[in-house]
Design a protein that fits this description.
Number of domains: 1
Strand order of the largest sheet: 6-7-8-3-9-10
Number of helices: 7
Bound molecules: adenosine-5'-triphosphate, magnesium ion
Strand content: 25-35%
CATH architecture: 3-Layer(aba) Sandwich
CATH topology: Rossmann fold
Radius of gyration: 17 Å
Shape: globular
Oligomer: single chain
Order of helices and strands: EEEHEEHEHHHEHEHEE
Distance between the termini: 29 Å
Structural class: alpha/beta
Number of strands: 10
């Protein structure tokens, strides 16, 4: 098996005095879709924020073997870590094209795919007639496309995605599933928070978060009986 791109050990983090993550262990390799499961409030979004450096955390976070924990968010992004947050974090007063350009970064590694505006627009042709439009008037589905497109413009090697199909129409959900499967097949690592069945079908592996820790890592079919799964 290849060495993990992202390797997390004993990660602690939360909000002030509220400790949400209490020793999380997790690994993601290139070309692997790891599905992060857990009940509401179990800390899945918090884990993604801690990995992105958006909230304070302690423990071990390694990127291709290198200690990433001391690095600020923009340096983690430069190393090849991309993030599609739950709120999509579009800049509403900027145009679609300006949002895309804000996401642009050179690829970190020689092997990384080169994404540019033409290539992301080929994936999301619905954004082409909207390029000069203010992002605030986009539909939910268009905002989601823009959020993923902007993350790809950063030439990530690993993408963190927080419930990317929340509130979207079935057609957009299916298109997102197909896209993520293709990105994974092209060698991108994916750490996905998503409770819907399509994600379970795509997952190379699932990690179940509970009591602030990864309680299980493996194939969904091998999930032990003693882990309650009210969310399945
Ligand atoms: N900004 C914040 N300040 C204080 N506590 C927070 C904050 N954000 C989240 N929490 C708390 O941290 C815990 C984990 O929240 P988190 O958002 O990570 O859960 P989640 O697994 O993503 O669930 P869901 O998306 O269903 O809400 C919850 O108890 C939540 O109330
Ligand atoms: Mg969440």
């Amino acid at each position: 098996m290849t060495a993990p791109l992202l390797s997390v050990r004993g990660l602690h983090g939360g909000y002030g005095l509220v400790q949400v993550l209490r020793g999380v262990d997790l690994q993601v390799r290139a070309g692997e879709l790891v599905l992060l499961l857990g009940r509401n409030g179990s800390g899945r979004s918090t884990l993604l924020k801690a990995l992105m450096g958006l909230i304070p955390a302690t423990g071990e976070v390694r990127w291709a073997g290198r200690d990433m924990l001391p690095l600020p968010t923009h340096q983690r992004a430069r190393l090849g870590l991309g993030y599609v947050p739950e709120q999509r974090d579009i800049f509403p007063h900027l145009s679609v094209r300006q949002n895309l350009r804000l996401g642009a970064k050179a690829a970190a590694g020689a092997a990384a795919a080169q994404w540019d505006e033409a290539r992301v627009l080929a994936l999301f042709p619905a954004l082409i007639p909207r390029l000069r439009t203010s992002a605030k008037v986009l539909s939910g589905g268009e905002q989601q496309m823009l959020s993923i497109a902007r993350a790809l413009m950063g030439n990530p090697q690993l993408l963190l995605l927080d419930e990317p199909t929340e509130g979207l129409a079935p057609q957009r959900v299916a298109a997102t599933a197909a896209l993520l499967d293709q990105l994974r097949a092209d060698g991108l690592g994916l750490l996905l928070v998503e409770q819907k069945p399509w994600a379970q079908q795509l997952a190379s592996r699932v990690v179940v978060l509970g009591d602030g820790q990864a309680q299980f890592s493996g194939a969904l079919a091998d999930l032990p009986q003693n882990i309650s799964t009210p969310w399945l």
